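Provenance and format

Records in this collection were gathered into a single text stream. Each protein contributes a sequence line and a token line. The two records reproduced below are adjacent in the stream.
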Amino acid sequence: MNALAIPPRLLLGPGPGNLPPEVLAALAQPLLGHLDPVFLTLVEEVKEMLRRVFRTANPVTFPVSGTGSAGMEAALVNLLQPGDRVLVAVNGVFGVRLANLADRLGANTLRLESPWGRAFDRAAFLAAVASERPRLACLVNGETSTGVWQDPAGLAGPVHAAGGLLVVDCVTSLAGQEVAVDDWQADVVYAGTQKCLSCPPGLAPVTFSPRALEAFRARTQPVPSFYLDLGEILKYLDAGGGRAYHHTAPISMVYALHQALSLVLDEGLEARWQRHHDAAAQLITALAPLGFTPLVPEGERLHPLTTLKLPAGLDEAGLRRRLLVEEGIEIGGGLGPLAGTIWRIGLMGHNARPEHVERLVSTLKCLLGR
């Protein structure tokens, strides 16, 4: 039987990205059982490191077994009951997904629509909170489909005053741009491993505030999911509760996340945020002479993922295909109303480095005959 022969790629799309060698080595470690005390010690260390990366003291902080979308679903499925009011700021694909998921759970969903490529209006968001008094107010901190960064600071107080909880999607921002859960007073924050953490896809770090945990425990109906039921998961994760079996955790992925988090903390969060900022700035400056211009205004940009409007006459799909097939470089196209009009270039985690920007820019110049 032939061994796998995977072609090398420089992954500069919206995710996943290339892995550090230390994370690849962690994936090759021998398997342990999901109740092995050595593995459970690693889980506890991962939970503590996640608290530091999320910048929170929340005891209920852990990796959901699933991708970032599982983190999103875990946030909503544990806190919503049919008929609950939900406010979602929608300015991209993942705001749409949050709202659609709330609909599926039987919520009374209010969509605060904003143009794709712009941050939403904070005053309008807070006015909707005051008038609708939603059980959940949801926003995407780093909108992967548009490259928009939305600051959650100052939103939680009014949400709490209206009797609600603040839910924040940090899938593309965690470890690449400032995330400060406790300073934000956010109640549920979720992320993914395959972006700025430089880990394979397959786990979704989440954190629940004590306020969110209290709301969960006050439910009057069962959680409409076994796999994502927070109560059942905590029976397995609670070091003092006897570790009741819930599901078989993805052992090797936990190894990889443990190593990835160690690298993040060794580098330092502020230094890592700055590295992502600098890589995005370098990319924008270097591609400007080729006619690529930022979609998102400065101050609203998501540093780990840059969206660029294309020069006139560019064969968008053809050039992306040539980059991938001929040069081994992956970048992303636009989604929804932005399809065919922008590129999404991810410089995330291990890939947020000057040499990767230089390789992409020099390759594009050659392909464009510049």
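Adjacent record:
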Amino acid sequence: MENDKLSKIVSLCKRRGFIFPGSEIYGGLSSVWDYGPLGARLKKRIKDVWWDTYVEGRDDIVALDSSIIMQEGVFKASGHLEGFSDWLVDCPGCKKRFRVDKLEKKNGHEYNCPECGETIDTDKNKPRQFNLMLKTNMSATEDEPYYAYLRPETAQGIFVNFINVLNTTNKKLPLGIAQIGKAFRNEVTTGSFVFRMKEFEQMEIEYFVNPNEATSCYKTWVQERFNFYVDRIGLCKGSLRLREHEKTELAHYAKACTDIEFKFPFGWSELEGIANRGDFDLSEHARVSKKDLMYFDSEKKEKFTPYVIEPSAGVDRTFFAVISDAYCEEEVQGKTRVVLKIKPELAPYRVAVLPLLKNRPELVELAKNIFCDIKKRIPAIYNDTGAIGKLYRRQDEIGTPFCVTVDVESLNDGCVTVRERDSMRQERVTKERVLDFIEKNS
């Protein structure tokens, strides 16, 4: 049933212009996806809400936009060049490659292939270790290469700029540095849609604190981020849960870590991780670069290496969660109505303006005038390409909270019909009050 929901979501995203397979006309590219006209809008809304909440909404967090390509030394210090790898094994049947830790174990050293069902014997097909970093040659010639790497996370750009940010902002600790940007990991993925991709986008904050305040700060951020998904993104509280990592599963640098998990169509999995990274990052970059990355507290007259609390969110996973949580099928008059009950603030369009008859020029003119007035204040779309019933269903499927229908009576009484997405309730409103009505009820 859940796999059926996933296939329906993937189909809707392609059909309505949320997400397309990458390089599709050339046969596609594994684990690479393109965001279409509606997907780009929804994705931007998600990023805007995060940015407004933490960068614009707080005085203790500043912004950064660091480069995607970074020098090799950065990843020597971070540990990515040596330890950032997966154990992969090839299936003798379908010849595809899989992560050993994600395979279903049959017995002993035998596993089931998730694609063809063939038995994978790790004694015969020895797993091999593959680094997940994507390397690029920055030299103008192939015979004298100069290699750099595409960042596997946005965090390292923040760490190497920590002193630059301190010196230019004159901020004191605690201080957060926030960044939205692309990251790249050459991971093996199977059937997870945009949950795990080779190119993805992160919304990360590195929050630098006095070591004595790190534990309490970490707990505060865990609750803050959980509440963000419920209050600002609009996810159902029952679709979220917190899972604290056991000591045995913590990354080597982490003092503690908690995942915010979401119930995706394929089951519970990580939506975001909040980690207490200790002083590992600044200490290692200081050691490798030979630069002083310590902080001096002028009031307490003490110098120390800050601890870092990291709330790391994925834009793509948040997008996937929003679509999954909002997807709904309802029986209406013997037919199935598909509707995305997205929070109005996030919807690609807040309102659609629809003329009842497109062959009445005066009706179309009035509808377009109303549309032009609305789109100056809120995201709106105009559509006259079908019968009103089909237009409503189309807007339901893309999550538009309100439809404004201009009919023949509108020419006489100056009123329009406003239809609400979730309840399908309709109300006559004067065209002068449409904007206020929508904003009040959003």
